[in-house]
Each structure stands twice: as C-alpha cells, then as structure tokens.
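Internal tracking record. Fields below are filled automatically when a chain is submitted to the structure queue. Please do not edit lines marked as system-generated. If the sequence contains nonstandard residues, flag them in the REMARKS field before resubmitting.
Queue: standard
Priority: normal
Entity type: single polypeptide chain
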Amino acid sequence: MLTATYSLVAIANEQSKMRRLLHKIQNCIQNAWKDLHQLDLAGIERVFNELRNLDRYYHSRKVEVHLIPAVRNATDKADPLLAELDALSEMGMNILRSIGEQLKLACERGGDAVGDVCRSMELYCNKLLKRLAKEEQELLPLVRRVFSIEEWFAIGAKFLSEDGQVRGPASMPSQLEVARVQ
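SYSTEM-GENERATED OUTPUT FOLLOWS
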C-alpha cells in the first residue's frame, strides 16, 4: 500500500501546485481589471501566455497522463465522471482559443475588447478550478475504492519513473513566474 500512499501524495502535490499557480494568475487578472483604464495590453498578453503554459502543464500532470487512463481501463463506474471531466477540459480549451481571438480584437480596438479578454480569462480559471475540485472530491475517492494493490503498484511505478527523469517541455516552464506579470 506504500505505492498507493506515494501516488496519492504525488497527486496532492500536483493539485496544490496547480491551485497556487492558478491563484497567482487570477490575481494578475484581477489587477488588470483594477487598472483597466491604464491597461497594458502587453501585460494582458503575458497573462494569456501564462494561461497557455499553465494549460500545457495541467494536461501533463500525473492525473491526466497516468491516473485517468488507468481508471478508464479499471472500471466503467467512472465513465460519467470522466465524461464530465472531459467536457470541462474541452470547455477550457475552447475558452483558451476564444481568448486568443479576443486578444487579437483587443489589440485592434482596445477598451471593451480588453474587458472581454479579462472576463474570458476569469471564466477559464473558474472552469479549471471546477475540474480540480471534481478530481479531488470525486475522482480520487473513486480511485481509492476501485484500484487493486496491483493497479496502485503500476501507477506508483509510473510516477516514480517519471519523477526520476528530468521532465521535458511538458513540465511547468521556468518562465511561469506569474508574480512578475502585472
């Protein structure tokens, strides 16, 4: 059961890291709202780029890469929940694409279009937070109930293997220093 404990701790650490990064980005968005009349469009573009980096990191997490595929193979009890998580991810990706388009308009028109970009970035963050909460409140308890010792061992081995390697481009980029983006 040590591998199950290790796996759950690794997942909890990634979830915490995601929440911290997401809250930093949300603070940047809120600061942009406060200074909307003095808005720095380049600053908004940086926040958008940080959101895209965060999205890449989000989809490279252990939950996405290892746990969810293992759950899909282990039980059909998770199908409705996994469909809901997939739908939230799809909405998030659509919002992110929309932000890119809105940002182009904001560069041309400014003003109200920049407000639309900020609203969409907040919406993206809220969808991501909702998905994180679903993972924590529904997926992880389900996984604890349905995985056998062998399945936990396989998951833990993948986590350990991944943790032992230097992560490539899918890992959180070092440039994601959101505190400087304001």
